[in-house]
What we know:
- With 473 residues, the chain is mostly beta strands.
- Helix content is 6%, strand content 40%.
- The strands form 8 sheets. Strands 1-7-6-5-4-2 form a 6-stranded antiparallel sheet, with no helix packed on it.
- Strand 24 (360-362) and strand 25 form a beta hairpin.
- It is globular, with a radius of gyration of 25 Å.
Amino acid sequence: MKKSLIHSVVGLAVLAGLAALFFWLSKDPTENLQVSLPGADNRQEGNLVQEIIQIGENFNLFDHQAPEMEGTWSRFRGENFDNIVSEKQNLKDSWAPDEPEILWSVELGEGHAGPAIYKGEVYVLDYDEETREDALRCFSLIDGQEIWRRSYGVHVKRNHGMSRTVPTVTEDYVVSIGPRCHVMCVERKSGDLVWGLDMVKNYGTEIPQWYTAQCPLVDGDKVILAPGGSTIMMAVDIHSGEILWECPNTMQWKMSHSSILPMDFNGRKMYVYSADGGVCGIAADGENEGEVLWQSNAWNHSVVAPSPVIFDDGRVFLTAGYGAGSMMIQLVPEGDGFAVEVLTEYKPKEGLACEQQTPIFWKGHLFGILPKDGGANRNQLVCVSPDDVQTMVWTSGKEARFGLGPYIIADDKMYILDDDGTLTMIKPDTNRYIQLAQKKILDGHDAWGPLAIADGRLLMRDSKTMVCLDISK
């Protein structure tokens, strides 16, 4: 009897074990898992605290005034959108051991947002982790003292930094875009709020990986934005915030990290945007203003940071990192719009490609830093002809490698900022790499924010500190 009972218990245990094994083998252990995309942690609205956001609700005025100066660097990539300082500068050709002098420095929230300069005042978008606020901050270019701060509460978790955009400044206004796609327009001198726009709430914008990096384009009285979601591009009256036109996002593309650039070709003015999903040109004038003039998904990548490089002959150079490489397209007049012809397409090891910064077109040549997947020339500054971006005219060499940091040209000098805060000055040349000086300025990391130069002063930053250098003779 006892043996029979024991055998029964053992038999039941074996059957239960076999049933459990069968269930485990038939169950998909990944069915409740989600694919982890780069930058997707801590950014999507489902992972963020839901809140009522009052854009521009808070204001601080400090007891400081900035003396007016002459120079301006009023927007991303400067007056002509080419990252070349057009104003006359008289800058040093070399640096003594104690140069360039750091005139002042300020601590910022972790991020890569670059500054804009306007007549002695510096404007930078920042994120205050302590108060959990997006903050548009105004400083004096002379001494770095803060003049005013316009901010609003918004929950943003650190994800390789937070703020990433450059404000656009006019004589009367400053326009900024925050990490979670909040657009804010304030009066330049007073910091008074003019209007705000929530692109996620109003247009269903999907916040890009690693947050918003699109810089606002101001064209006359219009602010041009590319929300994605329901609207691929739109125009807002800068004085009132009134929506002037909206171009439906029939292509269902998403907001990228790239910024909109103006283009004039074949008698038409347009706005060119390299989105997540494709590239397009939207009419900026005429009876069909705000409508698609051309579009192409031949250039289709999910992580696009550099802006298009536009040529007078209707060519557009496109590049990105993460294996995207580069592409040169040609606009061809067709009816009331344009057809798009792909001229060349290259993988990173085959030609010029850039991961984060936009190449500079100077004296008929393109200058850019190859990405980390650029083969033997990875992280080197290279020079190519736009007619053949596969053939390197020159490279900076394996001893002169750079990272994801920015570069700018002023007074026939190019300034390149490495990831670790080392600043290199070269003489831009179409025949060879000529290094003039080099100095480690910052002790931080991820020095990726765009540079700005005005009145002989260079503004640069790493992930947490912004400094002003005297580079004048």
